Predict the 3D structure of the following.
Amino acid sequence: MTIGSLGYIGLQVRDPDAWSAFATGVLGLMPAEPAGAARRFRLDDLAWRIAVEAGDADDLNYLGFEVGGPAELEAMRIRLADAGLAVGNGDTDRLAERGVVGLISCLDPDGLKVEIFYGPTLRTETPFASPAGVGGFVTGEQGLGHVVLSTRDMAAARRFYQDLLGFRLSDTIRMRPAPKVSFDMEFFHCNRRHHTLALIPVPMPRRLHHFMIQTPTLDAVGFAMERAQAAGAPITATLGRHTNDHMVSFYARTPGGFEVEFGCGAIEVDEATWRVGRHDAPSTWGHKRPAAH
Ligand SMILES: [Fe+2]
């Protein structure tokens, strides 16, 4: 029993106008129907994948994990409640706002709101069309992409995401951000995407280090990097290939302060044969941090 994929994320930013311009103009996301004051964006057939609302956090506001149907949602509700978590049932307003058939919610050990849902609204009658000419994103069974979160308590985060939600460890990377500073990042999958979640065991100013969206082609990554540069968005990591998922990507700082990774070419997990590995570097080449940022 596991969650199926990352269905949606909710962001709270001080400047929704700037964030929306970045989302459409640089990332190439398609504007979707808003929900109240929240602006929303599409990556695929789903009615929305990313919601952005105004607020001081400049951080992730909530995560939405998708499960297959009502039986899976009920099983997850029971498992979370049995573990002693306070589990909320989505009321009709919340279901309407998210556009899903069923939903429960709880808090992760660091206090982030985590929603689990089934039955997202599909907009197949209005096909995805990117305002920046992006042909499409790798989603479907792999969900919208991945998120990398900081945590104050790795053991507690593991208990929640691994033992309760059912994430499986893909691998670890020993990070050495400064001399005499090191920690292990842990990468977790819940479907064929190499990691839907990664955890940084270090308290940081915000929970969300970055979210990642994936395109099928390297050209789409190159065009996105050129749009980011033309828009003056700070490139926080140059084009590079990651050691663990082999993704070729670049990173840019979004107007919310957290970063976005835009990539292609990641390997996929075959659960039957996958073996956990460890790495001593995050990248085989590239991903350099330009001096100006
Ligand atoms: Fe990433």
Remarks:
- DSSP finds five helices and 18 strands in the chain.
- Helices lie at 16-25, 70-82, 92-98, 154-164, 218-230.
- The mean pLDDT is 97.
